[in-house]
Amino acid sequence: MDVVVFGAGSLGSLIGGLLAREHVVTLVGREDHVHAVQEDGLRITGEIQAVVRPRASKTVSGAADLAIVTVKSYDTPAAVEALSGCDCDAVLSLQNGMGNEERLASLVATVLAGTATYGALQDEPGSVRCTGIGEIVLGPPDGGQSTIADRIGEAFSTAGIETTVAADMPRRRWEKLAVNAGINATTALSRVPNGALSDGPLSDVARRAARETARVARDHGVDLPDEAAIAALESVVDATADNESSMYRDVQSGRRTEVEAINGYVADSDVETPVNETLAALLRGWERESKLGK
Ligand code: PAF
């Protein structure tokens, strides 16, 4: 399979690097990373160790069976523009937040949604550290079966990536949104690792944000009980207790956050969502002060 990874940061490089063990992969990313990969290949360290030689480029061109998009949600419009120069059969979004698949749908008929629980950190250009072996779950964003999803799942598995092809992506996407709505803003605003949400007042804020997200999911016709959203949140808090969430890392580095595609998305609803509204307002305030954001 011929695969383009658009947004080869930590997760994109790890998944692209693992796929490169069996497939033809092009990593599209930042100049220093692209240059290092072109020179010496990609070094995977940590829980998986390998040196692979994917192609690397700053721009997208030509044809591919699959484009994997791993950019931040606010960069999805830029991904759409860049990928319009690529003749891709299918696009898979492995991104945080909601609305990405809908935007990518202007590119190709087959857009798949995915979730990733592999842990990845980029220490230096040309290298990526696998901090946890997880799973990729992928499938049609609106649910159901698809032979293309099966084929892509097979290609991932052949490359040794733990993969499940799921027919219930709507529920899984909302469950992931509930986890991100609970963890990301709370840890970013309080500057704490995920494990700080296991008890106390911050845990209460996170649970309320997740519960509101489940309510909004049900308003969209997706059967996500409050208990399932809370259980998913608790299990991710436990499994990633020592980790800093992506939004906490964004705030620490003075970067724009994905608040609009997470708490902002939940709050943009007919359902009452006071906790998500407050979290979104606080983060927007921080972004405004830091001269970031929309
Ligand atoms: O965005 C993140 O950091 C991750 O999606 C998660 C699951 C919250 C773990 O930190």
If you had to describe this structure to a student in words, what would you say it looks like?
By secondary structure, the protein is of the alpha/beta class. It folds into two domains: 2-165, Rossmann fold (3-Layer(aba) Sandwich), CATH 3.40.50.720; 169-289, Orthogonal Bundle (N-(1-d-carboxylethyl)-l-norvaline Dehydrogenase, domain 2), CATH 1.10.1040. 44% of the residues lie in helices and 19% in strands. The chain contains eleven helices and twelve strands. It has helices at 10-19, 31-40, 76-83, 100-104, 147-158, 169-190, 200-219, 226-239, 246-252, 263-267, 274-289, and strands at residues 2-6, 24-28, 42-46, 50-52, 55-57, 63-69, 87-93, 111-116, 119-121, 127-132, 136-139, 163-165. It has an eight-stranded mixed beta sheet, with helices on both faces. Strands 4-3-10-9 form a four-stranded mixed beta sheet. Strand 11 (136-139), helix 5 and strand 12 (163-165) form a beta-alpha-beta unit. Helix 6 (169-190) packs parallel to helix 9 (246-252). The protein is globular and about 50 Å long. The model has no long low-confidence stretch (mean pLDDT 96). The protein binds pantoate. Pantoate binds next to helix 6.
